[in-house]
């Protein structure tokens, strides 16, 4: 791991991953897989081996690795797959379970954006289906279910169905898979697919693998060896008298434990890095927000880091990265870029990234960046606030609401309730920087001292190293300089201890 907070202005964890162009067609042509996925497509953009070799191959025995691959194939979660998808949007029309913050059309729009984020996936149709609740065995009413079944089974171009709900129960997935005869995805599994495509560092890949475990565990209901995913005959016995269900459950437990140990090693390194940051007393500002709200673009605009490449897409950032930025007062601040949040996914998916998100949550202040131009803005704001609450953010921590992308809305529609900016064009950034500076100096207890020190002295060098020199001026005596210095209580104590006779002009 290479870390250089000041010179590079970022914290990046890098890993050289293996690569292969092995095609998946042989896998999907196998009789076991083809019986369920006769219409699934294959792709050669990324080998499945890249995914399965990325974290545990040195420790995991061959049988476990083979069995895990088998389970992932059954649930159609391996990377590189191609699909032509029908998106089905069930929505509760009335009652306490109705979502008042959004509409079925907006939910469909986001679902389509999720599919568009996956290479070689294409949405070929969308359907809105009113339901009484999302708890039924097959999700939909009997008439709706039969209508959907006919529509999907008759269309040979459909290779998968995305039911745009948080998480399907095992029995629901089984019923829909059996009836529609194609793989069934929910929001959890689609976001997992995106994460697998986007994860670049070893830590991000491990976190995605960790998030996959609870999902696969929920899929085990009704699944058995040789069942082709239809869930029949779940009492099949495999080695040592274990049922197929129990054997896969133990497999997931072993894998989860190994991934957890690997992540804990990385968390210890993060703890050391955090200790070093706190020792040097760098103020930290975390930028959080809904996915594609413009967080990376904002940090690039503030830091001028040409290496950052913002993308217009969901979950473009999966790794928490840190970037150095100097305020007008010359104080170095660390800006933390985080994984974007999204509505209606289980906390397990975000919890897998909790260790890296904790770096952001430990920040001195948080900026909640919002997409002012998005028609579903209120629902997105609520989703981020709910996630922050579940991450147990200190209620005393300052959180500032900032609306981004005001260049995309009409002037009369710009809200006056919070700070408005355009990260892309720089509108409002000076005001935002002033806000950050004022609040950070307050919450980090920085004091502005005016000191008289001998020019070129050890005091002069020490202050430049340990504190923030904002300005300096000459005195009538050319042997002395007046320094305006921002200093924390800890550093001030060291100053008094090392240089008890230093002259403070603004006591």
UniProtKB/TrEMBL annotation:
Its domain of life reads: Eukaryota
Boundaries of every Hflx-type G domain copy = 283-444
- Kindly state which keywords UniProt assigns to this record, in alphabetical order: GTP-binding, Magnesium, Metal-binding, Nucleotide-binding
Q: Which InterPro entries match?
A: G_HFLX_dom (IPR030394), GTP-bd (IPR006073), GTP-bd_M (IPR032305), GTPase_HflX (IPR016496), GTPase_HflX_N (IPR025121), GTPase_HflX_N_sf (IPR042108), P-loop_NTPase (IPR027417)
SUPFAM superfamilies found in the cross-reference section:
P-loop containing nucleoside triphosphate hydrolases
Q: State the Gene3D superfamilies in the record.
A: GTPase HflX, N-terminal domain, P-loop containing nucleotide triphosphate hydrolases
Checking CDD domains in the record gives:
HflX
Q: GO cellular component terms?
A: cytoplasm
A GO molecular function held by the record: ribosome binding
**Identification of the protein by name:** GTP-binding protein
């Amino acid at each position: 791991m290479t870390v250089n907070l000041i010179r590079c202005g970022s914290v990046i964890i890098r890993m050289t991953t293996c690569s292969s162009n092995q095609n998946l067609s042989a896998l999907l042509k196998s009789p076991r897989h083809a019986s369920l996925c006769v219409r699934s497509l294959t792709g050669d953009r990324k080998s499945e081996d890249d995914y399965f070799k990325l974290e545990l191959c040195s420790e995991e025995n061959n049988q476990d690795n083979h069995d895990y691959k088998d389970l992932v194939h059954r649930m159609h979660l391996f990377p590189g797959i191609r699909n032509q998808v029908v998106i089905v949007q069930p929505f509760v029309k009335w009652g306490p379970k109705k979502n008042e913050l959004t509409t079925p059309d907006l939910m469909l729009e986001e679902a389509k954006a999720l599919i568009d984020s996956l290479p070689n996936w294409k949405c070929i149709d969308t359907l809105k289906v009113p339901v009484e609740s999302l708890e039924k065995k097959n999700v939909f009413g009997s008439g709706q279910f039969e209508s959907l079944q006919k529509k999907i089974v008759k269309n040979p171009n459909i290779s998968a169905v995305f039911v745009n709900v948080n998480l399907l129960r095992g029995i629901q997935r089984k019923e829909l898979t059996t009836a529609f005869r194609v793989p069934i995805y929910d929001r959890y599994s689609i976001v997992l697919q995106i994460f697998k495509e986007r994860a670049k560092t070893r830590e991000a890949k491990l976190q995605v693998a960790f998030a996959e475990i609870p999902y696969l565990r929920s899929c085990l209901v009704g699944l058995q060896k040789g069942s082709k995913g239809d869930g029949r005959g779940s009492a099949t016995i495999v080695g040592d008298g274990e049922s197929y269900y129990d054997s896969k459950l133990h497999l997931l437990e072993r894998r989860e434990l190994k991934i957890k140990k690997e992540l804990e090693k990385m968390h210890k390194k993060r703890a050391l890095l955090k200790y070093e940051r706190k020792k040097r007393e760098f103020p930290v500002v975390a930028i959080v927000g809904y996915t594609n709200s413009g967080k990376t673009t904002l940090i690039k605009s503030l830091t001028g880091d040409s290496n950052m490449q913002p993308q217009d897409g969901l979950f473009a950032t999966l790794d928490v990265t840190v970037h150095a930025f100097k305020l007008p007062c010359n104080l170095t601040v660390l800006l933390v870029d985080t994984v974007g949040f999204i509505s209606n996914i289980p906390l397990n998916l975000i919890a897998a990234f909790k260790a890296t998100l904790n770096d952001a949550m430990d920040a001195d202040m948080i900026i909640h960046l919002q997409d002012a131009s998005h028609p579903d803005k209120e629902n997105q704001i609520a989703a981020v606030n709910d996630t922050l609450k579940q991450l147990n953010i200190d209620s005393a921590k300052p959180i500032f609401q900032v609306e981004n992308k005001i260049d995309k809305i009409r002037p009369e529609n710009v809200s006056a309730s919070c700070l408005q900016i355009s990260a892309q064009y720089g509108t409002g950034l000076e005001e935002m920087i002033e806000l950050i500076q004022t609040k950070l100096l307050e919450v980090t207890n920085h004091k502005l001292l005016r000191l008289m020190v001998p020019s070129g002295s050890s005091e002069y060098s020490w202050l430049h190293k340990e504190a923030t020199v904002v300005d300096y001026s000459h005195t009538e005596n050319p042997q002395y300089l007046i320094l305006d210095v921002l200093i924390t209580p800890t550093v001030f104590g060291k100053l008094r201890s090392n240089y008890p006779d230093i002259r403070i002009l603004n006591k």
